[in-house]
Amino acid sequence: MAAPSISQTLTTSTNPDEDSLCSVTKQEPEPGQQQQQQQECWLLGSPGRCLTGESHVERAWAHWRKLGEPKLIVAPMVDNSELPFRMLCRKYGAEAAYTPMLHSRIFTENEKYRSQEFTTCKDDRPLFVQFCANAADTLLEAAQRVEPYCDYVDINLGCPQRIAKRGNYGAFLMDNLPLVKSLVEKLALNLRVPVSCKIRVFPDLQDTLNYARMLEDAGCSLLAVHGRTRDEKDGKKLRAKWEAIKAVKNAVRIPVLANGNIRHMDDVHSCLEETGADGVLSAESLLENPALFAGFKTAEWALDGEDGSEEVKLDQADLLVEYLKLCEEYPVPWRMIRAHVHKMLGEWFRIHPHIREELNAQSKLTFDFLYDMVNRLRVLGVKVPLYVKDTRRENICQWKWCLNID
């Protein structure tokens, strides 16, 4: 079966349900496009060449530099970092993005799952496609389907949820490091794009450092480190350990990304400075505020004892409308859209809970209903503005992240 296409066109859909896309017609890549992408992605090296030592490290850095060394990255989020949301975040400053976690076995077996859960387009780059897995051959088969359309194939070694424990993947593979090593080696030896890994830390720092070095030796070319253990699931109550990320950065020679505690751009600057990481990932905070990487803050952070913030003519409802328009262009399952509506309009729904109840009562959503819901909130006089510092332009431009935002 063919790998998912990289472009889509929207067709008219009637009566969509929660488990289906707005109807999609897929277009095949242009002749020669797939071959060209495969040849260019991993720096003209054949699969499996020079996986360890200086050559591997040099190639890892050369690839990272070729992508522009992105610093602001959308983290992988199950059902939440899909194409329309990635494109919205890219508009507002994100320089790279992960797909949602894809289940490698289901991806290889189920064509409907492939077509609905992995979609992309030509502007959706740099792109990490993330898989969970516990069988090397299955993971490779899934990865080979997506390698023409991405810049890294990522292995999820960090999911701490109960479903990951039941399925024996994510952070629960930390109990079986030989299996983890085999997964990384299998991809590194056979793919034409580099392998990345996203991990959590062990309670013992030395175990974490040994883990990171093992992944690098196995062929990992980029490492994203979430600074919490797999038992530390509540990101609002438990701060990520940036000092552990710094130690990993100093222990390996490949690029390292930091994950945890990124709520606004001040955190980005602090994290990069304190960890020495090559980029940061944000997840939950982006769901509420997809414009985070453009310097915008929600009131929770802008008004929490901080001077010099000013209200702007942008709020989550504006961002939601932009997101919905992207969903019309790049269809995704309605369950994903519903989740984003709740995240972006959370504060609005607290003011008018009856609107949220009407949304929850809809067994089948439509774009007309959602646009009308936003208009009704505006008629009710709801406004939850975003904020920026007076020095926002200066702060952003020093990182070369200037955007043309009204």
Automatic annotation (TrEMBL):
InterPro entries associated with the record: Aldolase_TIM, DUS-like_FMN-bd, tRNA_hU_synthase_CS
Annotated Polar residues bias: 1-15
UniProt EC number: 1.3.1.88
Top EC class of this enzyme: oxidoreductase
Annotated DUS-like FMN-binding domain residues: 74-363
Molecular function via GO: flavin adenine dinucleotide binding; tRNA dihydrouridine synthase activity
Pfam family name, one: Dus
Keyword Transmembrane: no
Record flagged with keyword tRNA processing: yes
Reactions mediated catalytically: 5,6-dihydrouridine(16) in tRNA + NADP(+) = uridine(16) in tRNA + NADPH + H(+); 5,6-dihydrouridine(17) in tRNA + NAD(+) = uridine(17) in tRNA + NADH + H(+); 5,6-dihydrouridine(17) in tRNA + NADP(+) = uridine(17) in tRNA + NADPH + H(+); 5,6-dihydrouridine(16) in tRNA + NAD(+) = uridine(16) in tRNA + NADH + H(+)
Disordered: annotated span: 1-37
Superkingdom assignment: Eukaryota
Required cofactor names: FMN
Keywords: Flavoprotein, FMN, NAD, NADP, Oxidoreductase, tRNA processing
Family: Belongs to the Dus family. Dus1 subfamily.
Protein known as: tRNA-dihydrouridine(16/17) synthase [NAD(P)(+)]
UniProt source species: Escallonia herrerae
